[in-house]
């Protein structure tokens, strides 16, 4: 059996930080129900102290998450934040407090005005304080991706000793490359006493388009929880995309020695739901859930897919709940695709007639981005009238 990788969804917290994505409690509950249906392991439902609305959302989601899905509330390493999160999480069967602070030189110096020793003290206090309220406490080392590795080892060691059950190593600014992020995780595993008894989580951002690659690199080096969002929604260029990491693990599980328990056929539904609720469109060429993820446009590809789907598709669309492979008829389409579509519409032609039909099709296609069934119907009917006359 491969290692179970827990999927920690933060669409409702970090995803909501995407400009224009804010959601009310009702909307968050709709998404939370879908996340439960998908069997994610953790829902980060909000940042309870940030507003009464966020408090309510965390509380309401706690009521519907059931006893297999953990509900998590974010806090700063501040007592009041932790108390409010604990209160909001009282409704959850599996509550988790997610607390922490910035650990990179710029966060310590410019944002928090703390020395390294003071930051360690604050981390220890926050974890211990949170453990007074819940048994499951996740410590985040914000901007770990740009931290001094020696200091990161010390602060993670302190958090583990203080009682953290999960340690989160975020690449908050999406700065890392796959070849140097995983090594940080590996070193933590080698140097932090007791880390084998806690979950190592990664939380990567997409500023250089590396979020998915970094998360997988971390998994390869021992992380067993990935923090991610539907459609990769999130601050700036977004967070790790849930659908991408889940499908990458599904396809390469053996090599990664990893699996998730996410119900992948719910991915497309989840993507559409988040997009319609937030009003943020998914780019058409987005991996897994984009409108073009299973669309084939060039003649060579269409010919291949019509002969055998896996010539140009690595994922069965049904596995992610998508409608199916799509052949887009355009001026780039060849004979095979046109013959196939006309056949589906009930039209067959001998070779000579088909050549004429194909030439008529190209004339239309050169004037349009895409040729639709209505265009084909009127083209065939016009030809039939001409042939009869
Ligand atoms: O990106 C980040 O570091 C975060 C933390 C608050 C976990 O979102
Ligand atoms: Zn983040």
UniProtKB/TrEMBL annotation:
Biological process (GO), any one: L-leucine biosynthetic process
Signal peptide feature range: none
Reactions catalysed according to its record: 3-methyl-2-oxobutanoate + acetyl-CoA + H2O = (2S)-2-isopropylmalate + CoA + H(+)
Record keywords, A-Z: Acyltransferase, Amino-acid biosynthesis, Branched-chain amino acid biosynthesis, Cytoplasm, Leucine biosynthesis, Manganese, Metal-binding, Transferase
EC primary class: transferase
Record-level Gene Ontology MF annotations: 2-isopropylmalate synthase activity; acetyl-CoA C-acetyltransferase activity; manganese ion binding
Cofactor(s) essential for the protein: Mn(2+)
Involved pathway(s): Amino-acid biosynthesis; L-leucine biosynthesis; L-leucine from 3-methyl-2-oxobutanoate: step 1/4
Transmembrane segment boundaries: none
GO cellular component: cytoplasm
Domain Pyruvate carboxyltransferase span(s) in chain numbering: 5-268
Described purpose of this protein according to its UniProt entry: Catalyzes the condensation of the acetyl group of acetyl-CoA with 3-methyl-2-oxobutanoate (2-ketoisovalerate) to form 3-carboxy-3-hydroxy-4-methylpentanoate (2-isopropylmalate).
Family in the record: Belongs to the alpha-IPM synthase/homocitrate synthase family. LeuA type 1 subfamily.
Protein's name in the database: 2-isopropylmalate synthase
The encoding gene: leuA
Residues of the full protein shown: 1 to 389 of 511
